[in-house]
Amino acid sequence: MLQYAVIGVGTLGKALINRLMTKPSIEVFAIDNDINEIEAIKNNVTQAMRLDSTQKEALEAIEINKFDAVILTIGEDMMTSILTALLLKELNVKNIIARYSNEKHRAILSMIGITHLVSPEESMGVHIAEQLEVGDTLLLYDLTEYHSIVEFPVHGGLAGKNLKELDLRKKYKINVVAIKKETVGILGEKKVIVDCTPDPDVPMVEGDILIIAGHDKDIEKMYKKMAE
């Protein structure tokens, strides 16, 4: 089961929570300092917690670094957003997505080291949910309530193996849709090609991206096995 924390239960936070809670393999924990927002959302999430996200001790108490992803949806209160982002980095949260309200806000979050930033124009709950990275390895796209297409970067023990060796359909009931590869053009520019009929006998290399489709539970099972 994947666990996401959403910090900030405003309009964007609620839209994101509603989207994520449709996925049976995801648990959502809502965090806000406003008791009224927590009371309003508590029956629609796995757990709702009232706490001040600018307090390190409060974040440590809920073991914020153990979540698969933390989504910081605070936009208007720029100082709270920045202080929270600093603490999330300090506490080694592995996957942070943050919304910014203006270019100054974006620049500061970027300087802190937040690499996955969502602009005001993009800040729709559905958009973030569909683009949500999990553990730096998965990118989700909904097909149905229970099925997704995901991108799975090839790294570590996967490099050097071919599709025949992996045998994902037999082991996990997962289908390989395509493989994305980065190549260099004749002028030295980087290009991405998508091979929709990959040769099952050709070894994959570090940096390739598997595009796979399957039931969310099967994808989660594969993800956990590959992460071992």
Automatic annotation (TrEMBL):
Superkingdom of the source species: Bacteria
RCK C-terminal domain location: 136-228
Residue intervals of the RCK N-terminal domain: 1-118
SUPFAM superfamilies on file: NAD(P)-binding Rossmann-fold domains, TrkA C-terminal domain-like
InterPro entries per record: NAD(P)-bd_dom_sf, RCK_C, RCK_C_sf, RCK_N, Trk_Ktr_HKT_K-transport
GO MF annotations, alphabetized: monoatomic cation transmembrane transporter activity
GO biological process per UniProt: potassium ion transport
PANTHER family: KTR SYSTEM POTASSIUM UPTAKE PROTEIN C, POTASSIUM CHANNEL PROTEIN 2-RELATED-RELATED
Protein's UniProt name: Potassium uptake protein TrkA
Organism for this UniProt entry: Brachyspira hyodysenteriae (strain ATCC 49526 / WA1)
Name of the gene encoding the protein in the UniProt record: tkrA
